[in-house]
Predict the structure.
Amino acid sequence: DTLPLAEGELLALCMTDFLAGAFRDTPFAPALLRAIDKLRLMLPQPVRSAFSEGPFFSTLHEPAPPERPESATHFNVLVHAIRTRRQVRMVYYTMSRNSRSERRVDPYHLYFHEGMWYLYGFCHSRRGQRDFAVARIQQVEPLPGGFTPPPMQEIRARLAQRFSAVEEPPVAVAIRFDRQEARSICERVWH
């Protein structure tokens, strides 16, 4: 049996294979890669050969610090805590204050944004919902206490608000660049 795909569907499958890299070192990676391999085997031979050559596109992400090996372990602990609705205790590095602090968090959701994984949850120390860069979590352990997360629709709505356009009156600013940087800056539309 082969899987007939339209050109757009093949492109979507290639993009899925390419974007699967965002899930490396996560509990989802093995299942995702197995599913893609099964789909690849169902493609007609000429298409399978083209698919195996790799994607004919790429994306460049903004520079991000390399992930620490512990990040994958922390990610797995967080996935389990989210599934079982268990609180976690974590030591978190806050870049803006250049300090570490211990936090007790109800982990609601993990999301990938601009090349990095984040945890969204309720921080008992700060008494509010917060986002935590998984790469900045230095230690994490599940606690016996449980929690009831908000409905997924509410979580998605709150995350969408975080990354939507700011709806405030515009403010005029002037930014000065040296001549060489100014030429590069002028090539792009920023907002």
Summary: The chain is about 35% helix and 25% strand. The two ends are 48 Å apart (CA to CA). The longest strand covers residues 99-113.
